[in-house]
Every structure is written in C-alpha cells, then in structure tokens.
Amino acid sequence: PDAFRAARYMLTGMVTAVMLYYITIALIDSQDRLLLAIKVSQIVAIVLGIIAILQWMFPDRQVLPEFFSFSRIVAEREEIRRGEVRVMATFTGQELFAEYAAMAIMMQYFLMRWARRITERAFWICGMLLLLAAVAATATRGGAIILVAGFLYVIVVGGKVVPRVQSTRVVFVAIA
Predict the structure, then answer these.
(1) With contact defined as beta carbons under 8 Å apart, do 132 and 123 qualify?
(2) Residue 66, pLDDT score
(3) Residue 98 and residue 56: Cα distance in Å, rounded?
(4) Closest CA to 28 of 37, 18, 17, 19
(5) How many CB atoms are located within 10 Å of the residue 8 CB?
(6) How far, in Å, CA of 112 to CA of 97, rounded?
(7) How many angstroms separate the Cα of 155 from the Cα of each of 28, 32, 62, 79, 121?
(8) What are the 10-residue block averages of pLDDT along the chain, 176 residues in total?
(9) Quick check: 139 and 109 in contact, CB under 8 A?
(10) Predicted local confidence at residue 84, as pLDDT
(11) Could you tell me which residues come within 8 angstroms of residue 120 by beta carbon, excluding any fewer than 6 positions away?
(12) Are 51 and 90 in contact (CB under 8 A)?
C-alpha cells in the first residue's frame, strides 16, 4: 500500500506537469503573450524576493499565513536561534532559491534593457536589487556562480543583443 501511494503521487505529479505544459503552450501563442508571461513570472520573483527579505529581517516571525508551512519552518530553524539567518522564501532550500533568484535577476536585466519608459526601467532595477539582496541573504554560492556565469555569457556571446560596454558597466558596478 505504501508503494502504491508513492506511485500514485508520482503519477499525479507527472500528469499535472504534462497538463501544465500543454496549457502553457496553448495560452502563450504570440510574442506579446510570451512577453506578458515573462513579466508576470518576474513580478512573482520580486514578490518571493520580498518574502525572503522579510524572513531575513524578521527571522523569528511567521511572514506567510499558516497554510504556508515554509514560514514556520524558517522561524523554527536551529540556525536562526544561533543568529545565522539564511532565507529561502517559499522554496525547500536556500540553494534552490538562490539559483532561482539569480536567474530572475538575469531575466529582469533583459526586461530592463527592453523597457521603453523610465518608470518600467526603475521597477526592474529595484526588482534586481531586491533579488540581489535576497541572494546575499541565502548565503550560498550557487546564486553568485549563476550571476557571474550569466553576465560572462552576455558579455562574451551576447554582444549584439546587449552592447558589451553596458554589460561590463553593470558588472563593474556590481563588483564595486
């Protein structure tokens, strides 16, 4: 019976993933809808960054409602009682969240470059800074490695998409 439950759980997850995949393909059928889906996903990333910063600033508090067990798990961790605060937002681990946030920073960099209005650019820049703080609050190497590798790729390979001078300026400011 235990193996049957595990198999049913796995099957349900696989069927759900396939359905989600096909629904996403059916809904995103134009370039405008793709850009809208990317923007919505990055707004969700910013919200997760806010949750992570709140976990970092108030580690002994429950940030999310009770039906999210992640906030309670973070508040009850032994490291936090010792004064070591490592955030993970709603993810199951710090490393996974750091990698997600670093990839979101890269995507928001491109959204900032594509933005036409100054308010939209300012929004994406603030989102990148917020997620950068969240990556630092995870205290893991994965996010930093992804950021370095991503910006090196943009500088080396993506010179036509984003001019190298502007990309190296961003890297210089980040290092400074």
Answers:
(1) no
(2) 60
(3) 14
(4) 37
(5) 10
(6) 22
(7) 30, 27, 41, 38, 20
(8) 83 90 86 90 94 81 63 59 65 83 92 91 94 88 87 78 73 71
(9) no
(10) 60
(11) 112
(12) yes
Rounded to two decimals, the pTM is: 0.74
Which residue matches tokens 């923007």?
39
Give the H/E segment covering residue 122: helix 118-138
Residue 110 CA to its chain's centroid (Å) = 14
- Report the C-alpha gap between 33 and 161 in whole angstroms: 21
- What is the distance between the alpha carbons of residues 100 and 107, in angstroms, rounded to a whole number? 11
Residue with token string 């019976």: 1
Residue 121 has phi, psi (to 5 degrees) of -60, -45
Can you say whether the dihedral through the CA atoms of 20, 130, 80, 84 is positive or negative? positive
Q: Residue 65 and residue 129: Cα distance in Å, rounded?
A: 26
Query: Residue 41 in contact with residue 127, Cβ under 8 Å?
Result: no
Q: Which amino acid belongs to residue 25?
A: I
